[in-house]
Input
Amino acid sequence: MRETRAEAAVWRQQPAKEEQPLLALSQESEMAGKRRVLIVGAGEVGHQLARNLQDAGYDVVGFVDDEVESVVSGLRVLGCRADIERLVKEYEIDEVLIAYAPTWQQRLAEMLVSNGHRRVEIKVVPNIVDIVLSGPVADRVGDIPVVDITPRLPSRRLLLAKRVFDVFFASVGLLVSFPFLLLAAIAIRVTSPGPIIYKQERVGKDGRIFYIFKLRTMVVDAEKASGPVLASKGDPRITAVGRILRATKLDEVPQFVNVLLGHMSIVGPRPERPKFVEEYRERIPHYDERHRIKPGITGWAQVMGGYHTTVYDKLRYDLMYLYHMSLWLDLKIVLLTIWTVLKRREGC
Output
């Protein structure tokens, strides 16, 4: 019976010096009968994989490899890595299995993401330590046990529960903070000319632009001469009242309105301005992954990092949150945010 999954990936590990991970990418196919497979890498792992697949009834068309002979174990080497796209079309390939040494891990993982294979599954053939750490082995490829380590996007049920969580916390947050907002508004009006509420374009879920609301903490037209510039510790553009608002995070409270409007969540990656997003997209692979969920008022990167945390490290925290999202984690981040704010106040 044909495999029903549209796309799958396998990461094979062997112990000691022969450890060689294996990633396998399966493309969706409506063809009946045997699945046609192309193996990238004609080394030992590739040979063993070919034997296992043939025993399981797969049609192994051949290998792709840059450095070996034209025929390996009775199967042809059809071309080099640069030929993969052509070979997939020419031979009507259903699955491309990639077997390379550990130095290829990052490049292959990036390929799976950058080519848009969003439904790719990653599985590990575990050694004893992996089994101890990961728990029961729940799947297999032939007679080889595998552990599913695929990053999972949140389910609709979780997103619905998260929305209820967001509306509840945003409503309570606005009610509880209203007296402080009123005092902050008076302080801003008295000490600095200009509007109390500041709105700014930010990039949200799926790259959509929205306006974020904040209490104004900088002088009016702070970026008129310089253009968009990220705020920094000790930024001279920040007013005296603004420093207090930032230290206590009161300047972020109007974003509860963004949450109620559906632009944001309580917890999620912090939204950036369009100019900076364009810059980060060019410099940082897969930066847009963080836009697959709504941005948040606070996030994992905010409670674990600080002003000097690099954009790359913040992205790592954001993706860790994205692929491990839960209501419990949201609550934990909210509590850590409150604790962080209280600690900063004690240090003032």
